[in-house]
């Protein structure tokens, strides 16, 4: 009897092994997609479990209707509360600390495609275990469009393609309409602005950044002379030497105290004039590398040139953007909190996701 049982189990095991081998031998349907570095990856035609390992890129995936496909994310509800409010499916994703993750853990999570930032040290390890990896980083409007198109191609749905097309048309319109007014400004009418990413430690954003681009479109000059790139450390004395007309504080910059650093801040023109602006923050900080870039342009233009953009209603623009691209109905109070860089209130639930529109 024992021998019969062993034989029976052996036959079943062999049949299961054959079935599994036959399934594994059949290649999953894929298509080639070139990432932002030009490297071509074979990605599943319908990836179901995405590892989104660049903080800014999760917003693009959500906007393209694939929030429920994000199986692993580097974003957290504590740091990006509006993201999780708009896309509650993220609560089901595995949260990881930073873009450097263990390749085996992604395999165990069933990940079939991963997005990573520029210069990711994880990409090679993930590819080595068979996970297609796409570098999704962008640095300006042109590469934002490319990254969005690449992401839509990976997601592979008509909805993703349609949203990307609609978004790019809106992006072009906002940039064109804003520049139509600000391009006529003489240099002396363009305020010199320092954008502060962090106060402690003190870091600013210089040229060759998306921050520098929206400043220019909005009719400003980046006062961080000689600084190239994002989040560059500087001293308060250096900012005082630049003596900007306006300071824009990033949403994650920390608390500003003009009496700090021996009161050096008080000698800066922007502080004397009270021109210290706190940047909005929604699904992702508007000032950085996310899809809310058009809202950032409109906000900055109005704040820097209120006479030129007196008719701009940022509350309504924010509500319209969230309805169209995140399928989420903000009320006026919620939009106001986003514009103030504040998280949602527990009772500020608005009407929630829009039903019947592929909400996510």
TrEMBL record:
Position of the signal peptide: 1-24
Transmembrane segments: none
Domain Fe/B12 periplasmic-binding as annotated: residue spans: 49-312
Keywords on record: Signal
Cross-referenced SUPFAM superfamilies: Helical backbone' metal receptor (SSF53807)
Superkingdom of origin: Bacteria
Protein name: ABC transporter substrate-binding protein
Organism whose genome encodes this protein: Novacetimonas pomaceti
Lineage, uppermost ranks: Bacteria, Pseudomonadati, Pseudomonadota, Alphaproteobacteria, Acetobacterales
């Amino acid at each position: 009897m024992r021998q019969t049982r062993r034989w029976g189990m052996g036959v079943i095991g062999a049949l299961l092994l054959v079935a599994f081998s036959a399934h594994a031998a059949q290649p999953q349907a894929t298509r080639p997609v070139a990432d932002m570095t030009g490297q071509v990856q074979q990605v599943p035609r319908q990836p179901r479990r995405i590892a989104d390992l660049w903080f800014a890129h999760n917003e693009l995936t959500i906007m393209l209707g694939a929030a429920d496909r994000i199986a692993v994310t580097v974003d957290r509800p504590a740091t990006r509360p509006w993201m999780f409010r708009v896309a509650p499916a993220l609560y089901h994703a595995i949260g990881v600390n930073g873009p450097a993750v263990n390749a085996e853990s992604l395999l165990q999570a069933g990940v079939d495609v991963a997005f990573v930032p520029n210069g990711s040290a994880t990409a090679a390890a993930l590819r080595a275990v068979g996970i297609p990896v796409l570098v999704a980083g962008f640095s300006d409007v042109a590469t934002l469009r490319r990254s969005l198109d690449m992401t839509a191609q990976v997601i592979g749905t008509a909805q993703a393609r349609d949203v990307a097309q609609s978004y790019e048309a809106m992006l072009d319109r906002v940039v064109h309409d804003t520049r139509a007014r600000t391009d006529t400004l003489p240099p002396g009418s363009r305020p010199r602005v320092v954008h502060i990413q962090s106060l402690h430690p003190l870091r600013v954003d210089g040229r060759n950044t998306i921050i520098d681009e929206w400043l220019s479109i909005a009719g400003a000059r980046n006062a961080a002379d000689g600084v190239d790139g994002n989040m560059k450390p500087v001293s308060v004395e250096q900012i005082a030497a630049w003596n900007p007309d306006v300071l824009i504080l990033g949403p994650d910059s920390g608390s500003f105290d003009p009496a700090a650093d021996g009161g050096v801040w008080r000698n800066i023109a922007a502080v004397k004039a009270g021109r210290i602006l706190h940047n909005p923050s929604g699904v992702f900080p508007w000032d950085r590398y996310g899809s809310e870039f058009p809202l950032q342009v409109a906000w900055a233009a109005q704040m820097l040139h209120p006479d030129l953009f007196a008719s701009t209603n940022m509350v309504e623009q924010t509500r319209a953007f969230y309805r169209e691209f995140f399928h989420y109905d903000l009320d006026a109070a919620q939009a106001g909190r986003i514009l103030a860089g504040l998280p949602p209130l527990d009772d500020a639930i608005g009407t929630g996701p829009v039903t019947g529109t592929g909400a996510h």
